[in-house]
Amino acid sequence: MAESKSLIKIKPNSYKSGDIVKVSFMVMHPMETGLRKDKKTGETIPEEYINSVKFEYNGKVITTMNVWETLSVNPVFTINMKVDGAGELKVTYTDNTGKVEETTEKIKPKG
Amino acid sequence: MQRRDFLKSLGVGAASAVVIPSMSFAAEAPKPRGKNALAYNDALGVATGGKKAEVSAKVKLKVPEIAENGAVVPVTVEVEHPMSESDYVKAIHVYATKNANSRCIGVHLSPANGEAMFATRIKLGETQEVVAVAELSNGTFLMASQSVKVTIGGCG
Asked: Which of B19, B52, B128, B140 has its CA 20 to 30 A from that of A83?
Protein backbone atom coordinates (compact mmCIF):
# COMPACT_ATOMS: atom_id res chain seq x y z
CA MET A 1 0.00 0.00 0.00
CA ALA A 2 1.32 3.37 -1.01
CA GLU A 3 1.97 6.01 1.62
CA SER A 4 -1.14 8.15 1.85
CA LYS A 5 -0.89 11.91 1.69
CA SER A 6 -3.39 14.58 2.48
CA LEU A 7 -3.55 18.30 1.95
CA ILE A 8 -5.73 21.25 2.97
CA LYS A 9 -6.23 24.10 0.52
CA ILE A 10 -7.97 27.37 1.34
CA LYS A 11 -9.41 29.66 -1.32
CA PRO A 12 -8.91 32.58 -1.75
CA ASN A 13 -5.28 32.87 -0.64
CA SER A 14 -5.78 36.06 1.32
CA TYR A 15 -8.83 36.54 3.53
CA LYS A 16 -10.02 38.59 6.46
CA SER A 17 -11.65 37.66 9.73
CA GLY A 18 -15.36 37.23 9.10
CA ASP A 19 -14.92 36.12 5.47
CA ILE A 20 -16.35 32.86 4.20
CA VAL A 21 -13.62 30.78 2.57
CA LYS A 22 -13.63 27.52 0.64
CA VAL A 23 -11.74 24.72 2.34
CA SER A 24 -10.71 21.70 0.27
CA PHE A 25 -9.36 18.58 1.89
CA MET A 26 -7.61 16.25 -0.55
CA VAL A 27 -6.44 12.74 0.30
CA MET A 28 -4.47 10.16 -1.63
CA HIS A 29 -6.58 7.07 -0.97
CA PRO A 30 -7.48 4.03 -3.14
CA MET A 31 -11.22 4.00 -2.11
CA GLU A 32 -11.59 0.30 -3.03
CA THR A 33 -15.21 -0.85 -3.14
CA GLY A 34 -14.50 -4.55 -2.55
CA LEU A 35 -16.24 -5.36 -5.85
CA ARG A 36 -13.29 -5.02 -8.20
CA LYS A 37 -11.21 -8.04 -9.22
CA ASP A 38 -7.51 -8.18 -9.91
CA LYS A 39 -7.19 -8.67 -13.67
CA LYS A 40 -4.15 -10.97 -13.38
CA THR A 41 -5.05 -13.21 -10.44
CA GLY A 42 -8.86 -12.94 -10.59
CA GLU A 43 -8.99 -12.37 -6.84
CA THR A 44 -11.32 -9.79 -5.32
CA ILE A 45 -9.48 -6.70 -4.10
CA PRO A 46 -10.48 -6.12 -0.45
CA GLU A 47 -12.44 -3.04 0.56
CA GLU A 48 -10.45 -0.02 1.62
CA TYR A 49 -12.30 3.27 1.90
CA ILE A 50 -12.50 6.38 4.06
CA ASN A 51 -15.52 6.16 6.37
CA SER A 52 -15.38 9.45 8.24
CA VAL A 53 -13.89 12.91 8.00
CA LYS A 54 -13.90 15.56 10.73
CA PHE A 55 -13.08 19.28 10.39
CA GLU A 56 -12.01 21.07 13.57
CA TYR A 57 -11.32 24.81 13.77
CA ASN A 58 -9.57 25.96 16.94
CA GLY A 59 -10.75 22.81 18.73
CA LYS A 60 -14.40 23.25 17.71
CA VAL A 61 -15.91 20.61 15.42
CA ILE A 62 -17.44 22.46 12.47
CA THR A 63 -18.24 19.61 10.06
CA THR A 64 -18.31 15.82 10.16
CA MET A 65 -18.90 13.48 7.25
CA ASN A 66 -20.05 9.89 6.91
CA VAL A 67 -18.29 8.62 3.83
CA TRP A 68 -19.02 5.52 1.76
CA GLU A 69 -16.94 3.66 -0.79
CA THR A 70 -18.87 5.29 -3.67
CA LEU A 71 -16.57 8.32 -3.67
CA SER A 72 -13.85 8.54 -6.32
CA VAL A 73 -10.23 7.52 -5.90
CA ASN A 74 -8.19 10.23 -4.15
CA PRO A 75 -11.29 12.08 -2.96
CA VAL A 76 -11.67 15.82 -2.41
CA PHE A 77 -14.00 17.23 0.23
CA THR A 78 -14.86 20.91 -0.17
CA ILE A 79 -16.84 22.92 2.36
CA ASN A 80 -17.29 26.55 3.32
CA MET A 81 -15.95 27.95 6.53
CA LYS A 82 -16.39 31.27 8.30
CA VAL A 83 -13.02 32.66 9.38
CA ASP A 84 -13.17 33.64 13.03
CA GLY A 85 -9.71 34.83 14.01
CA ALA A 86 -6.28 33.24 13.68
CA GLY A 87 -5.84 29.63 14.60
CA GLU A 88 -5.57 26.16 13.27
CA LEU A 89 -7.78 23.97 11.12
CA LYS A 90 -7.40 20.25 11.78
CA VAL A 91 -8.87 17.60 9.50
CA THR A 92 -8.93 13.99 10.69
CA TYR A 93 -10.00 11.03 8.59
CA THR A 94 -10.42 7.35 9.43
CA ASP A 95 -10.79 4.45 7.02
CA ASN A 96 -12.40 1.02 7.33
CA THR A 97 -9.04 -0.66 8.01
CA GLY A 98 -8.71 1.45 11.17
CA LYS A 99 -6.19 3.93 9.85
CA VAL A 100 -6.46 7.43 11.36
CA GLU A 101 -4.62 10.39 9.91
CA GLU A 102 -4.73 14.10 10.62
CA THR A 103 -3.57 17.17 8.75
CA THR A 104 -3.40 20.72 10.04
CA GLU A 105 -3.34 24.09 8.34
CA LYS A 106 -2.73 27.50 9.90
CA ILE A 107 -5.51 30.05 9.53
CA LYS A 108 -3.94 33.50 9.18
CA PRO A 109 -6.50 36.20 8.40
CA LYS A 110 -5.11 39.52 7.20
CA GLY A 111 -6.82 42.29 9.12
CA MET B 1 -32.31 -49.25 -30.82
CA GLN B 2 -30.49 -49.62 -27.58
CA ARG B 3 -27.73 -47.31 -28.68
CA ARG B 4 -30.27 -44.72 -29.86
CA ASP B 5 -32.11 -44.76 -26.54
CA PHE B 6 -28.87 -44.43 -24.71
CA LEU B 7 -27.88 -41.37 -26.71
CA LYS B 8 -31.32 -39.83 -26.24
CA SER B 9 -31.15 -40.18 -22.48
CA LEU B 10 -27.65 -38.78 -22.55
CA GLY B 11 -28.86 -35.82 -24.58
CA VAL B 12 -31.74 -35.13 -22.20
CA GLY B 13 -29.47 -35.55 -19.22
CA ALA B 14 -26.92 -33.16 -20.61
CA ALA B 15 -29.58 -30.64 -21.48
CA SER B 16 -31.10 -30.80 -18.02
CA ALA B 17 -27.64 -30.57 -16.50
CA VAL B 18 -27.17 -27.33 -18.40
CA VAL B 19 -30.61 -25.95 -17.61
CA ILE B 20 -30.75 -26.65 -13.89
CA PRO B 21 -27.61 -24.81 -12.78
CA SER B 22 -28.41 -21.81 -14.93
CA MET B 23 -31.90 -21.64 -13.42
CA SER B 24 -30.60 -21.84 -9.89
CA PHE B 25 -28.08 -19.14 -10.75
CA ALA B 26 -30.83 -16.92 -12.08
CA ALA B 27 -32.70 -17.31 -8.80
CA GLU B 28 -29.64 -16.09 -6.90
CA ALA B 29 -28.86 -13.26 -9.30
CA PRO B 30 -30.65 -10.33 -7.55
CA LYS B 31 -28.31 -10.69 -4.58
CA PRO B 32 -26.95 -7.27 -3.54
CA ARG B 33 -23.31 -6.65 -4.32
CA GLY B 34 -20.90 -5.64 -1.59
CA LYS B 35 -21.10 -5.43 2.19
CA ASN B 36 -22.58 -1.93 2.37
CA ALA B 37 -25.10 -2.42 -0.44
CA LEU B 38 -28.30 -0.51 0.24
CA ALA B 39 -30.98 0.49 -2.23
CA TYR B 40 -31.80 4.17 -2.65
CA ASN B 41 -35.31 4.10 -1.14
CA ASP B 42 -34.08 2.31 1.98
CA ALA B 43 -31.10 4.64 2.31
CA LEU B 44 -33.32 7.71 2.01
CA GLY B 45 -35.66 6.28 4.66
CA VAL B 46 -32.75 5.79 7.06
CA ALA B 47 -31.57 9.40 6.59
CA THR B 48 -34.96 11.09 6.84
CA GLY B 49 -36.46 8.74 9.42
CA GLY B 50 -39.43 7.99 7.14
CA LYS B 51 -40.27 11.67 6.53
CA LYS B 52 -40.95 12.86 3.02
CA ALA B 53 -38.28 14.96 1.34
CA GLU B 54 -39.75 17.82 -0.64
CA VAL B 55 -38.36 18.74 -4.04
CA SER B 56 -37.11 22.31 -3.69
CA ALA B 57 -35.35 24.86 -5.87
CA LYS B 58 -33.42 25.99 -2.79
CA VAL B 59 -31.21 22.93 -3.15
CA LYS B 60 -28.85 23.50 -6.06
CA LEU B 61 -27.28 20.30 -7.33
CA LYS B 62 -24.56 20.67 -9.94
CA VAL B 63 -23.64 17.47 -11.77
CA PRO B 64 -22.63 17.07 -15.42
CA GLU B 65 -25.49 15.78 -17.59
CA ILE B 66 -23.13 13.49 -19.46
CA ALA B 67 -20.23 11.95 -17.57
CA GLU B 68 -17.70 10.35 -19.91
CA ASN B 69 -15.90 8.64 -17.06
CA GLY B 70 -18.15 7.25 -14.33
CA ALA B 71 -15.18 6.84 -12.00
CA VAL B 72 -14.86 10.58 -11.44
CA VAL B 73 -18.08 12.61 -11.47
CA PRO B 74 -17.86 16.05 -9.81
CA VAL B 75 -20.83 16.91 -7.60
CA THR B 76 -21.56 20.28 -5.97
CA VAL B 77 -24.49 20.91 -3.65
CA GLU B 78 -25.46 24.37 -2.49
CA VAL B 79 -28.40 25.12 -0.23
CA GLU B 80 -29.83 28.63 -0.20
CA HIS B 81 -30.64 28.86 3.46
CA PRO B 82 -29.34 31.06 6.27
CA MET B 83 -26.72 29.56 8.56
CA SER B 84 -27.60 31.24 11.86
CA GLU B 85 -27.37 29.66 15.31
CA SER B 86 -31.10 28.93 15.44
CA ASP B 87 -31.85 28.11 11.81
CA TYR B 88 -29.31 26.34 9.64
CA VAL B 89 -28.71 23.45 7.27
CA LYS B 90 -27.91 20.48 9.47
CA ALA B 91 -26.83 17.98 6.85
CA ILE B 92 -26.41 17.35 3.16
CA HIS B 93 -26.73 13.77 1.88
CA VAL B 94 -25.74 12.68 -1.61
CA TYR B 95 -27.15 9.52 -3.22
CA ALA B 96 -26.54 7.71 -6.49
CA THR B 97 -29.81 5.86 -7.08
CA LYS B 98 -28.53 2.84 -8.99
CA ASN B 99 -25.16 2.19 -7.37
CA ALA B 100 -24.90 -1.04 -5.35
CA ASN B 101 -24.48 1.14 -2.30
CA SER B 102 -26.60 4.17 -3.12
CA ARG B 103 -25.15 6.21 -0.25
CA CYS B 104 -22.25 8.45 -1.24
CA ILE B 105 -21.74 10.84 1.63
CA GLY B 106 -23.53 12.50 4.53
CA VAL B 107 -22.14 15.90 5.50
CA HIS B 108 -23.10 17.26 8.91
CA LEU B 109 -22.73 21.02 8.91
CA SER B 110 -22.84 23.64 11.66
CA PRO B 111 -23.45 27.43 11.68
CA ALA B 112 -19.64 27.86 11.64
CA ASN B 113 -19.66 26.90 7.97
CA GLY B 114 -21.16 30.27 7.03
CA GLU B 115 -22.77 28.95 3.85
CA ALA B 116 -24.19 25.50 3.12
CA MET B 117 -22.03 24.17 0.32
CA PHE B 118 -20.39 20.86 -0.32
CA ALA B 119 -18.41 19.49 -3.26
CA THR B 120 -16.75 16.16 -3.98
CA ARG B 121 -16.27 13.58 -6.73
CA ILE B 122 -18.26 10.35 -6.86
CA LYS B 123 -18.27 7.06 -8.77
CA LEU B 124 -21.30 6.11 -10.87
CA GLY B 125 -21.73 2.53 -12.09
CA GLU B 126 -24.25 3.30 -14.83
CA THR B 127 -26.59 6.00 -16.16
CA GLN B 128 -28.72 7.05 -13.19
CA GLU B 129 -30.05 9.86 -11.05
CA VAL B 130 -27.98 11.67 -8.47
CA VAL B 131 -30.00 12.96 -5.53
CA ALA B 132 -29.05 15.58 -2.94
CA VAL B 133 -31.07 15.79 0.27
CA ALA B 134 -30.68 18.73 2.65
CA GLU B 135 -31.77 18.42 6.26
CA LEU B 136 -32.71 21.69 7.95
CA SER B 137 -32.40 22.30 11.67
CA ASN B 138 -36.20 22.51 12.01
CA GLY B 139 -36.50 18.91 10.84
CA THR B 140 -37.66 19.39 7.27
CA PHE B 141 -36.00 17.74 4.32
CA LEU B 142 -35.49 19.32 0.90
CA MET B 143 -34.19 17.50 -2.12
CA ALA B 144 -33.02 17.93 -5.71
CA SER B 145 -32.13 15.36 -8.32
CA GLN B 146 -30.57 15.20 -11.75
CA SER B 147 -30.00 12.33 -14.13
CA VAL B 148 -26.46 11.70 -15.32
CA LYS B 149 -25.66 9.77 -18.47
CA VAL B 150 -22.58 7.64 -17.90
CA THR B 151 -20.56 6.47 -20.91
CA ILE B 152 -18.08 4.26 -19.06
CA GLY B 153 -19.15 2.87 -15.68
CA GLY B 154 -16.91 3.43 -12.72
CA CYS B 155 -17.92 0.82 -10.13
CA GLY B 156 -15.90 -2.14 -11.44
From this structure: B140
Phi, psi of B10, rounded to the nearest 5 degrees: -65, -45
In chain A, the domains with their CATH numbers are 6-33+44-107 (2.60.40.10)
Decide if B121 and A71 are in contact by the 8 Å CB cutoff: yes
What does the pLDDT average to over A77-105? 93
Tell me, which fold does domain B40-152 have in CATH? Answer: Immunoglobulin-like (2.60.40)
Q: What is the pLDDT of residues A34-74, one digit of tens each?
A: 888 888 888 888 989 999 999 999 999 999 999 999 999 99
Which of A9, A103, A95 is CA-nearest to residue A56?
A: A103
Q: Tell me which residues of chain B, numbers 31 to 90, contact chain A at a CB-CB cutoff of 8 Å.
A: 33-36, 71-73, 76
Asked if B112 reaches chain A (Cβ–Cβ under 8 Å), the answer is: yes
